[in-house]
Amino acid sequence: MDVMLAEGLNHQPVDAISKSIINMGFNCVRLTWPLFLFTNESLGSITVRQSFKNLGLFSSIVGLQSNNPSIVDLSVLDAYKAVVASLAKNNVMIILDNHISKPGWCCSRFDGNGFFGDQYFDPDLWIQGLTKVATTFKGTTNVVGMSLRNELRGPLQNLDDWYRYMQKGAETVHAANSDVLVILSGLSFDKDLSFLHQRPLNLTFSGKLVFEIHRYGFTDGDTWSNDNANQACGEVLNEVVSKGAFVLEQGYPLFVSEFGADQRGTNVNDNRYFNCFLGLAAELDFDWALWTLVGSYYLRDGIVGLNEYYGVLDWNWFDIRNSSFLQRISVIRTPFQGPGYTETRSHKVIFHPMTGLCVQRTSLLQPLELGPCSDAEAWSYAPTKTLTILGTYFCLQADKLGQQAKLSMICSDYSSKWDTISDSKMHLSSKLQDATSVCLDVDPNNVIVTQTCKCLSTNDTTCDPGRQWFKIIDSTRATKTTKSFLQIKPIIHFLARNFFGSYI
């Protein structure tokens, strides 16, 4: 941004912020840098104090002097290095992201920073900047990657220049620092990598190339609040896969380096989008960076101390803005599959994106319920559409409308078959004995029940299907559900309740 200093240092010591990142369960920061900070000596050499004075941010200087006296009189370039050093000291990994050229808020199509050849985007200067940054942090082992340029965009964007300069930038970073991952963004605000289907990159190195994409609820305007949520989810996820996530099938890591939601919880557009996108994140098991850590800004859009409602931290940079949101995304902090992650045999888990929880059981006699995915039940999902607890004969069965879903050993009738329906592919639907269609749902106590399927009509734009969205995902993650089904008494009670209930 304009002051060229990481946000929040007027509120908290840099080490305190670094520690809070780890304490909240994150392990990496995507730290942005403006090109001119590293290529314009007169700009990079001004002190932090002077940078704030130039913008009239005198109250922020007071906060900086109190919380970070060792930084306030450094040059802005040295202050950037100090922030990297603090993150590294506190065991936070760092991805250095060239976010923009001219310091300021990003991004628009016509801000002069969008594509090679724009007013502030000289490709040769950009190569110089990449070289300097890669070299500067070569000895910092916690700097694990460099993102070459954020959200390429604007009227000048074209494929030939993308290949020419992104390949050159990748080779430049690799030559200057062979230890870091090289991360490449696509076109159209980092939504589109579809050109890689037909035209791969030609690089001299391998094994360290990563592609990144971005996605928010507002990426699609008001689609999520104005259209049917199932339809919106299906269309958006198809686009995300066809224009970006397909690189996983090509063998490349995918880094969703920006996604997020208004953490006040009142934004319908964001809430519906996030329910859908979290299901995809769990299913595809990609790496990600949540926008954003920032609780408030020194200066943004002419407003001093602007509150960032997408921020994990609150305005004061001390309190957590929404602890339930952090709990919800904790499920995707640990990989479900890998790569190189084979603690246990491959199985399925049933994930509920709205809560960030998974279907589990406490015993044969207790209802299925939602709980931490570390305690998730391990399932198999047969071509016959039967969901069976792995290693047993017990399958998931619909009983009665509005009643708890149950486990049964009779797995051949319709009430034991579960189809993924609707455009979202996240409704799990079965049929009762009277042929009534039902979907898995969750009651207020997080117990798994079956209800009438919601929001299936594309004309229904006000309905929110979040409680009925479940995702069957692959996992090799070890869980705590090692309870033995060979305990005789629970099985006898289970059989008695299910098969002899009318006689006892």
TrEMBL record:
Keywords: Glycosidase, Hydrolase. Signal peptide: none annotated. The keyword Hydrolase applies. Residues 13-293 form the Glycoside hydrolase family domain. This is Glycoside hydrolase family 5 domain-containing protein. Transmembrane segments: none annotated. Pfam families: Cellulase. One of its GO terms (molecular function) is hydrolase activity, hydrolyzing O-glycosyl compounds. Belongs to the glycosyl hydrolase 5 (cellulase A) family. One of its GO terms (biological process) is polysaccharide catabolic process. The keyword GTP-binding does not apply.
